[in-house]
Design a protein that fits this description.
528 residues, alpha+beta, four-stranded antiparallel β-sheet, two-stranded antiparallel ribbon, 6 strands, globular
């Protein structure tokens, strides 16, 4: 069976275009299944992003500031939201999830109807100060189809965009000679939470997918330099960086962090020089410079004017200590914590994913050189300390609002860095690398499918319902059986890419032992 799967993987990777199309289709099946199988408004702040996307699609890039009372993490305040003009049924989006969110035993069947009133009224969105590019890309289906169908289409557009970024990361990984190991890094980085957010209308999905592409392209440039592939890698890096920088305010920080760590891994002389001599490098640098200036200008002109009543007990020191203690919770959120952070993945998903991550990180520490080890340890420290520093600096102003997915565009660099260090430094003999990849991707597929079904079960029958949701109180369009089958099939199909055979090492042609003599030294035949 394994040889047959290897032949199938080799066929899919026969050309970069074919591999991209296959990977794109499978990633879209995964992210699109989350789009279809999750109740509308059932993910963090999705109602605000729906409203923002629909408004931007109608040309409402900004709007008047409206102060709205909210309670977040037990802290009350007047939140500055943006007023927009939309059909009246959009007003129902902020409350449609409230009957089942944070009530795990209650299925999503209690959600009220959105209504169908097309009367234009003012509604508000907390996402009004975010850069409009993502919302313009995802909001246009609301102009074509009204009501819930339009919202589902917006989700599918988000899934399409994220799948394109992830497929480009797979193609970049497959350019390595030890490509099965490299592709494992992409699959380990594409956690269930990554796929879940990719299927929602939320800029986090695009930010995480762009982070995976940025890390994959950067690591390929510094660890596996190839002048024939440099321009296309720079293009992928540029596209991923443009998305990362423009989609959310933290994107620029994550991009700079990825560049710093990848430069730390650069050990071959001349790699940076060859990159800096390329015209494509300076073209993309110019575009990124303009994008960065535009993103910073937008953020400076759209500050958050919310007034939050932070208790005196929330200090920087208390927030740092509390955040450090919640590290395991944030790690779980990066792997899979669904709904409104009220639906954790099953323990099996966490155990398998952490086992794979721990194994490849340990192997990178064993086989890596000093700077490689320093980079891996630095990434591990950053994953713990960045949330501590971020929350400690902002807790007295906005409270304890950090979520694990905020760090995920940067944290995806850990599995990618670890496997690519192994692909570069570790000897091919002496360790069963193919077996490691095979067991790892099989385990990730099982863990991925378990996370999807566990979450869908929570929405259909609640956590107190039967393990097999035969009598579903709520069902997504198409039914829960169909989408579970689609997701499971795609989860196993996409890991086949990691079973492709590695490229053969290039054969060096040795020069002739006796080079031809110049004509002036050619032997003159003696006369007979």
């Amino acid at each position: 069976m394994i040889p047959a799967l290897t032949r199938l993987a080799d066929w899919s990777a026969g050309t970069p275009k074919r591999l991209w199309l296959v990977s794109f289709a499978l990633f879209f099946a995964l992210a699109g299944s989350w789009s279809a199988a999750s109740p509308l408004g059932g993910s963090p702040d999705e109602h605000a992003h729906f409203i923002r996307a629909a408004a931007v699609a109608r040309g409402q890039i900004g709007g008047p500031q409206v102060m709205v009372p909210h309670t977040v993490a037990g802290v009350e305040g007047q939140f500055a939201e943006t007023g927009v003009q939309l059909p009246e049924w959009y007003r129902n989006l902020p409350s449609v999830h409230e009957c089942y969110s944070w009530k795990q035993s209650r299925p999503a069947s209690c959600a009220p109807s959105l209504g169908n009133s097309e009367k234009i009224v003012q509604t508000t969105t907390a996402a009004g100060r975010y850069h409009p590019a993502y919302y313009l890309a995802t909001g246009w289906p609301s102009l074509l189809v009204d009501g819930p169908k339009g919202l589902y289409l917006m989700r599918f557009v988000s899934a399409l965009l994220c799948s394109a970024l992830l497929a480009s990361a797979v193609v970049t990984a497959a350019e390595w000679r030890r490509r099965s190991l490299a592709v494992l890094g992409v699959l380990a980085a594409a956690t269930p939470m990554t796929l879940y957010m990719s299927g929602m209308v939320n800029p986090s999905g695009g930010e995480i997918a762009a982070g995976i592409l940025v890390w994959t392209a950067l690591l390929a440039i510094v660890l596996s330099p190839d002048p024939h592939l440099l321009n296309r890698r720079l293009a992928r890096l540029g596209i991923g960086a443009l998305v990362l920088i423009n989609i959310r305010p933290l994107g620029l920080i994550w991009f700079v962090g990825a560049v710093v760590f990848c430069l730390l891994l650069t050990q071959r002389r001349g790699v940076l020089g060859s990159v800096l001599r390329r015209k494509a490098m300076w073209m993309w640098t110019g575009l990124l410079g303009l994008a960065t200036a535009g993103a910073l200008y937008w953020a400076a002109n759209h500050p958050d004017n919310s007034k939050i009543d932070i208790p005196d007990t929330i200090t920087a020191g208390w927030a740092a200590k509390r955040t450090m203690g919640n590290t395991d919770w944030y790690v779980k959120q990066m792997l899979g914590f669904f709904g409104w952070l009220d639906t954790p993945a099953p323990a099996f998903t966490y155990l398998v994913w952490m086992a794979v991550l721990a194994t490849i990180a340990a192997l990178a520490l064993v086989y890596g050189r000093k700077r490689d080890v320093l980079a891996v340890l630095g990434m591990l420290a950053a994953i713990v300390l960045v949330p501590v520093a971020a929350q400690a600096s902002e807790a007295e102003r906005i409270g304890m609002v950090w979520q694990g997915r905020y760090l995920l565009p940067f944290a995806v660099g850990l599995p990618l860095m670890a496997v690519l260090i192994c692909a570069t430094r570790a000897p091919e003999r002496g360790f069963p690398w193919r077996r490691l990849v095979g067991f790892s991707v099989a385990g990730l597929a099982l863990a991925n499918g378990a996370a999807f079904y566990w979450t869908l079960r929570r929405f259909t029958v609640g956590t107190g319902g039967s393990w097999l949701a035969t009598h579903a109180h709520w069902a997504p369009p198409g039914g829960w059986v169909f989408w579970t089958g689609v997701y499971t099939a795609a989860a196993f199909a996409i890991v086949v890419a990691a079973l492709m055979s590695d490229r053969k090492p290039a054969v060096l042609r040795l020069p002739d032992l006796e080079p031809p003599r110049p004509e002036s030294q050619a032997r003159v035949p003696e006369p007979a």
